[in-house]
Amino acid sequence: MVTAPNAQERRWRNSGRGRGGGGGDAVYGIGLIGALVYYIQQADGFWVGVLGVLKALAWPAFLVYDVLKSLAG
Q1: Between the CA of residue 51 and those of 5, 33, 48, 58, what are the distances in Å?
Q2: Start-to-end CA span in the chain (Å)
Q3: How confident is the model over 51-72, as pLDDT tens digits?
Q4: Are 57 and 32 in contact, with CB atoms under 8 Å apart?
Q5: Apex CA 7: angle with CA 4 and CA 13, to 5°?
Q6: 3-23 confidence digits (pLDDT tens)
Q7: Inter-residue contact 59 to 66 (CB < 8 Å)
Q8: Residue 24: how many CB atoms within 10 A of its CB?
């Protein structure tokens, strides 16, 4: 049985957050896959591979840090 949406669900749907996310998610996903491949290929052992997976999840932070560092001097 389908129930009618309550007031909070209607506000969420009408706020624009219920729609598609755009291209940013796809860019992050492709970057994540590329970073995973790169870091896992460079790993010498298991724990270095685990660290590589964690780095692959946080690659945007590394990118922004390096860009800001190069802009600063």
Answers
A1: 44, 15, 5, 11
A2: 62
A3: 999 999 998 888 899 999 999 9
A4: yes
A5: 85
A6: 776 777 777 666 655 555 567
A7: no
A8: 8
